[in-house]
Amino acid sequence: MTTRDRIPRPTVKRLSLYLRQLETLAEADRKRISSKQLGETLGLTDAQVRKDLAYFGQFGHAGIGYQVSDLIGELRRILGTDRRWRTALVGAGNIGRAVVSYGRLAGKGFEITAIFDRDPAVVGTEIAGSRVLPATELAAVVAERQIKIGMVAVPADAAQAVADELIAAGVAGILNFAPVRLKVNDQVAIVSVDLTVSLEQLAFKISLGATGEES
Amino acid sequence: MTTRDRIPRPTVKRLSLYLRQLETLAEADRKRISSKQLGETLGLTDAQVRKDLAYFGQFGHAGIGYQVSDLIGELRRILGTDRRWRTALVGAGNIGRAVVSYGRLAGKGFEITAIFDRDPAVVGTEIAGSRVLPATELAAVVAERQIKIGMVAVPADAAQAVADELIAAGVAGILNFAPVRLKVNDQVAIVSVDLTVSLEQLAFKISLGATGEES
DNA sequence: CGTTGTGAAATGATTCACAGCT
DNA sequence: AGCTGTGAATCATTTCACAACG
Q1: What count of other Cβ atoms lies within 10 Å of the Cβ of residue B73?
Q2: CA closest to D3 C1', residue
Q3: Which residues of B are less than 8 Å from A127 in CB distance?
Q4: Which pLDDT value is given to residue B103?
């Protein structure tokens, strides 16, 4: 099981959207859903939905559709949100604070296990119940607590150094908020979130009189 | 000029990355750069860089490469960041605050012209020098100040209503931070930023032992 | 030379369309 | 009758490879 072909990159992004939609449906006590219905709310074709899911197994029932609760379970397993992920936040500025306070993370299995900052004025303060630790302790704490994800919310010119430290201390992935491309070896997963890029895409689309959704 | 074929969607995202890199180079007083060099720092092939740029015109010089300052100008024009964009932020919670405080926006031509919130405890307070206005004034203020971009940083269940109001008041595009797909007509551009999706992508890639960058 | 711009080829992703199951 | 899973066809994007240029 978990048929391991090559997964199209866009598929993974859509799996998150399916999961979110299914969780909304589950809250409304919806039991079953077809690929057609699931696709409609997300602006996708039914074939797209089925193909995406079929990369990972046969989760549906011909003539019936998909069992909402089952599919939620499968997607969580596929995406890895059925486990708990210990994460460290580096940088307790505005972006960092926003991330910590983003309620949804805990429910997805992401727990912020440590927060670091370089600024002595910030170290020692509490953010959402966590004491901010000095950046000098990063290596030791990340290794000791077996933190597997680092969230880099420091200025661009410090980001690469922070990433290197996180990786040396054993993280397997980095969520990067700094506007730079991090150079890392291929064993480490990187996902970047960049507000500037998003706004520029929006400006471009507006200038075009453009159409359609885009993440 | 501004050859208007169909632009591949991934191209637009990369234009932002080129621009960012070029701006860094300009700060270091770099005058010229080849597609090969520009691609290398971003993990792209030289052909990719040239093709992306060639969709919009002929900006390079055979045998020489691209003039950094010229290309910056062209990219800003293409992306629409050579104009000023009046934006409104709706929702002065953690995400909203992080956005307002994100220094880079102003430099890109995005000025936050109004901030709205529904919570009477927040209305009237100042955030980064702007007084928070009551949500009830959204329609009037957006129309009057000719705000063209709305940034939706409210909870998921309020996002669609806010988007509808913004559009009715005349915005041409929305940057959506709420974890829902906004239903809007095709004249309005939407770009979504979703932390949950980004983290799930990261968890998936880690579970795979995966490789490569992804925004 | 080194480097661009660009058709042509190759690869990747989506949509079609239908057999087969419930 | 309704719907899934999937090969085949279509469409989109990237890479190749090279003529033309400074």
Answers
A1: 14
A2: A63
A3: none
A4: 84
Establish whether the CB of B61 is closer than 7 Å to any nucleic acid atom in strand D.
yes
- The CB-based long-range contact list for B49-58 (8 Å cut-off, 24+ gap) reads B49/B14, B49/B18, B51/B11, B52/B11, B52/B14, B52/B15, B52/B18, B53/B18, B55/B3, B55/B5, B55/B7, B55/B8, B55/B11, B56/B2, B56/B3, B57/B1, B57/B2, B57/B3
pTM score of the predicted model: 0.94
Q: State the Cα–Cα distance between residues A75 and B197, nearest whole angstrom.
A: 13
* Strand D proximal to A84 Cβ, under 7 A: no
Q: Where are the beta strands (DSSP E) in chain B?
A: 32-33, 60-61, 65-67, 85-90, 110-117, 126-127, 130-134, 149-152, 173-176, 189-192
**Structure confidence by residue, pLDDT tens digits, B69-108:** 999 999 999 999 999 999 999 999 999 999 999 988 988 9
B210 contacts on A by Cβ (under 8 Å): 189
Nearest CA in chain A to B193: A215
Compute the distance between CA of residue A101 and CA of residue B168 in angstroms, rounded to an integer.
31
Q: Is the CB of A61 under 7 A from strand C?
A: yes
D19 C1' – B42 CA distance, angstroms?
28
Q: How far apart are CA A83 and CA B95, in angstroms?
A: 26
Query: Is pLDDT of A151 > 80?
Result: yes
For residue A124, how many other CB atoms are within 10 A of its CB? Answer: 11
Using a CB-CB cut-off of 8 Å, the residues of chain B touching A9 are 214
**C-alpha to C-alpha distance for A83 and B143, rounded to whole angstroms:** 47
State percent of chain B over pLDDT 70.
96
Q: How many CB pairs under 8 A join A and B?
A: 207
